[in-house]
Amino acid sequence: MILDVQDIHGFYGKSHILQGVTLQFAEGETVTLLGRNGAGKSTTLKAIAGVVAPQRGTVTFNGAKLGGLPSHKIASRGVCFVPEHRGIFRLLTVEENLRLGARKDSPWQLDDIYRIFPRLKERRTNGGAQLSGGEQQMLAIGRALMNHPRLLMLDEPVEGLAPVIVEEIVAQLKLIRQAGVAILLVEQNLEVCTQLADRHYIIEQGVIVYSGDNASFAADESIKDRYLGVGVV
Ligand SMILES: Nc1ncnc2c1ncn2[C@@H]1O[C@H](COP(=O)(O)OP(=O)(O)O)[C@@H](O)[C@H]1O
Ligand SMILES: [Mg+2]
């Protein structure tokens, strides 16, 4: 087991958002976290990454408890988080953004990122602010890879992107997965989810209400209707 999240509770001020989230996954697994808007998906990723501190419960990564560690310490253990708004530094160039996350022991160095996403090489001296949404997402993923992820957490990585860019990013996520990196994916596009994932969790009002493997999830329309609602695809 690479990640074991047990009964975490998370608050924003007095709002009790995560009400006991429990999830686990094995080395190299790709797992999605699905649910309606406001269900607590982003907050769960933030709690694992240490961006918001869980008030109760435990997060164990690779055998060690992460509770109370600052987010940069959690990242240096290999839990790499690509947040929804990608965290690109607008005034730094593409290459400067990539070097921020760089670790010498990562299997992905600058040239590897430029091979995976040739567009970033073309844009390497451009500022973050000049990139399209798709390029920003590639940059955010590239930066996470240079940080040597053992668990890559992505929050809606293809939201709002053109289909051709979605395909390019999904193809790269498949290769990252093949390289043995565990992936925790929050994504509204169910087709993308079922293409990539081994298993799925659904969260509702801060509690996990469903867990199933990809084949049973893909086959069961009633689950999607009940928990995700029509029009989520
Ligand atoms: N920074 C914040 N301050 C206060 N409430 C927040 C904040 N971020 C999210 N929330 C609330 O927490 C709940 C869960 O949000 P979030 O985890 O972003 O949901 P999801 O990612 O599933 O759409 C929502 O009700 C949202 O309004
Ligand atoms: Mg969200």
TrEMBL record:
ABC transporter domain segment(s): 3-230
Protein name as annotated: Amino acid/amide ABC transporter ATP-binding protein 2 (HAAT family)
Protein family per UniProt: Belongs to the ABC transporter superfamily.
Keyword Membrane tagged: yes
Source organism per UniProt: Paraburkholderia bryophila
Family matches, as Gene3D superfamilies: P-loop containing nucleotide triphosphate hydrolases
CDD domains in the record: ABC_TM1139_LivF_branched
Keyword ATP-binding: yes
The organism's place on the tree of life at top rank: Bacteria
MF-aspect GO terms: ATP binding; ATP hydrolysis activity; branched-chain amino acid transmembrane transporter activity
Record keywords, A-Z: Amino-acid transport, ATP-binding, Cell inner membrane, Cell membrane, Membrane, Nucleotide-binding, Transport
InterPro entries named among the record's database cross-references: AAA+_ATPase, ABC_transporter-like_ATP-bd, ABC_transporter-like_CS, BCAA_Transport_ATP-bd_LivF, P-loop_NTPase
